[in-house]
Amino acid sequence: MKAIALLLLVAGCWASVALSARTVSKYITAQDQDRYGKIFAEGLKSTDLQAVYFSTANVGLSAADKTAEACKRLVTVYGESKLNDFERNFYLAGAWKNLACKEAIAGKVKDAVKGSLAKDAGSAQEIYFNLFAAKALGLANDDGVKAQVGKNLQALLKKDDTLNSLGHGFAVAAEIGTAGAFAFDRVEEAFVQADEVDGKMLQFEGGLSITALVVNSAFKLASSLKKPVPINAEQAVKFATYFLSRTSVQTPKGVSILLEALNTLTAEKTIAPVCIALSGNGQLQPESPVLGVKISDLLGKPLSPALAVVSTTITSKTTNEALASKVNLVPTNSDPTVFIYNLKALNPARGQYKVDIETGSYKQNLKINVLGKVKVASLEIGVGDSDSTSAVKKHSVTFSKKLDTELAADSQQKIVLRTQLVDESSGKPLNVHQAFVLLRNKATGQEIIFVAEADSSKAYKFEMDVGARSADFGYKSGTYSIELIVGDALISNSFKWLVADVNIKFASDSPKESDNTARKPRPEIIHQFRVPEKRPPRVVSDLFTGLCIAPLALLFILWAKLRTNVSNFPFSLSAVGFHLGLGAILALFGVFWLKLNMFETLRYLIPLALVTFFCGNRLLRSIAGRATEK
């Protein structure tokens, strides 16, 4: 019992953690709504029947839209559609109702829809389109029709349990009420097939259309049967995160099902996530460091009931010290979803901060940057000998002004620039992410950029040896402007400052274009095989060849001396063929040694070997036969 109690306690703690984290960081913005409105407006003019239906179902139709011409155009689009008949009938019936067409819809459409419900359908999708087409047309479906539809649907879901089929089946079951109660047992089966992405999102295979279909239909089914919602708060957050990642949809259907899914999740107050995000870009200006937080539902609307208290704790990421603890944000008058807190009195230092928002059971962790201002405390620039260690004669330049005199430097000299950057509020030396020195040829506009490095005193220094850098400038002498570029993610007044002009004269012995091998094609690379080893002298080769042949010559000499008896040699075709073949093979090996390669030798050897084999086999059989006779 203690173990069970412990498990229940852990589960309860986990549930409370999940509940406190029922937040997302995105919502449907006003810009998204404007773009969706344009998509629906374009959909009304489309020749795609599906696009017309979803557009009429979501856009606010004016009297100018609900005209007889619009209804006639709808009939034309219906006739040209290549969709299945049951889909075409559904979209026509739905759009006809949305446009409030005064004329009665074509009788053949009504008859087709009514007749389709009287017989068994071939798929859950077909039942869905037929049932909701009948609803749009105002056709009454009595309990007998609902029972028949439910029986047909149950049989179909046993054969086809894909997510697409289940999603349409849940929607049909929700519409027919208790006759479709059996489908609720399949809801859990559907949701366990959801794929988790990066531990942050849940989606079904098939993307937005399947995910929205299953979520919307399952929630409708649970509502119609007065059952608890099929997912918990943590899953709701992950589904909402997925839907909000698809806000860039471009089709009327995609926008429609996306908004429907977000409305479905928002309507369930027990699990509905809320959006807690920064209002603005999170960059707080030093003049007015006002923290703004957007707290709304998934569609960007104010929460109902309104939040009583919204508190925050702000901590420096650099020092980990709290700048503010449990301070309350106040709602703005212009937007009830935006809460603000002015940090001016806290005098925040430039840097990055963690912002922990807490309101009721919702928590969110955000990040902000408090910007500072950079100030140029001093800047000196001068020219000196590149090989001299003596002090360079420097000129001081005031920020935003340009040096009055033009500097001059040749290939034996160097250009030196040193500047001290400080924080405007504290006066302390400041390190920045970007400190560049740009030299621009005033005649050609050619630019070259160097990095200014910070020294031990945190001052930024740039030193350029003109002679060593001649190639970087293409040896183009002339007047160059020197500009200092300073930028950082945490400063609000990044700048580009024209400091001075310098007349640079490079060495006259610059390489000619024709001598520049970097612009010429490289020599062709020719593959070379390894050089063969040196062969021995011809006399040595002939000597060893003779020694190899000597045993064969000795064999013939001894045969002649011993008077070898060849009278029993059978002069049959097999005997002659075998010995000739054997001799030919030996001769081929000799030719291989002298001139042929391995592949050529094999080409000749194969037929010779076959002939020799068959003749040898026949010869041995004949010899064995004679021995048996004797």
From TrEMBL:
InterPro entries: Ribophorin_II_2nd, Ribophorin_II_3rd, Ribophorin_II_C, Ribophorin_II_N, Swp1
Broad class of where this protein is predominantly found: endoplasmic reticulum
Extent of the signal sequence: 1-20
Pfam entry (one): Ribophorin_II
TM annotation in the entry: 539-559, 571-596, 602-620
GO BP terms in the entry: protein N-linked glycosylation
Keywords: Endoplasmic reticulum, Membrane, Signal, Transmembrane, Transmembrane helix
Subcellular location(s) of the protein: Endoplasmic reticulum membrane
Record-annotated Ribophorin II third domain positions: 378-504
Highest taxon of the lineage: Eukaryota
Subunit structure: Component of the oligosaccharyltransferase (OST) complex. OST exists in two different complex forms which contain common core subunits RPN1, RPN2, OST48, OST4, DAD1 and TMEM258, either STT3A or STT3B as catalytic subunits, and form-specific accessory subunits. STT3A complex assembly occurs through the formation of 3 subcomplexes. Subcomplex 1 contains RPN1 and TMEM258, subcomplex 2 contains the STT3A-specific subunits STT3A, DC2/OSTC, and KCP2 as well as the core subunit OST4, and subcomplex 3 contains RPN2, DAD1, and OST48.
Protein name listed in UniProt: Dolichyl-diphosphooligosaccharide--protein glycosyltransferase subunit 2
Source organism of this protein record: Culex pipiens pipiens (Northern house mosquito)
